[in-house]
Amino acid sequence: MTAATTDIPQTAVTRIDLLLVAGMVAAGSRVLDVGCGDGELLRLLSEHKGVDARGVEISQKGVNDCVAKGLSVIQGDADIDLADYPDDAFDYVILSQTLQATRNPRRVLEQMMRIGKRAIVSFPNFGHWRIRWQLGVRGRMPLTENLSYAWYETPNIHLCSIRDFVNLAELIDARIVKAMAMDRNGAQIRVHAPWWAWNLFGEQAVFLLERAKKPAPRE
User: Fold this and answer.
1) Structural domain for 91, as ranges
2) Cα distance between residue 3 and residue 169, in whole Å
């Protein structure tokens, strides 16, 4: 698996991980950003990649922020509303830093793979060594820059590690096209390492998935 590259200037974004996600999207494609927040990624893709950009956001404030920027965004819930989209409606369906907040991550990912030819998913890695240290030494739920909520008020209900996500991709028969691990600021960890190393040292990750090719039937 190889990392994505992009010619979008870093000054165009406030989060480096969004630049890496954008680098996985082909210019002029149809894109649905699920849980698009304030629309920063959609704006980036529209301005620099010329995509047909659509978004779904659960919070009314997020929808209002996106509409104010001239973005095509509707209010919706990833756990429920993705089922309403037809097959192959988009070239890419993106879920950026939102998977862990869904009620049924497997179902959401399956719907993304159904309505998009490819899916891009980024998430915080619960297998990082700092999280293991806080659990092992302090015996308390960890707090990090990427997981900054206390356990009693967090919106994150299904945290996973990089290795967990790889296993889920295999379970739903999705092929990993590209993947990368990143530090807390979203900068890529530029080493080719086995999953256990990414799982230990990557604070977050982004994956580009596509449906696994099924073998042709025998004549």
Assistant:
1) 10-124+156-211
2) 18
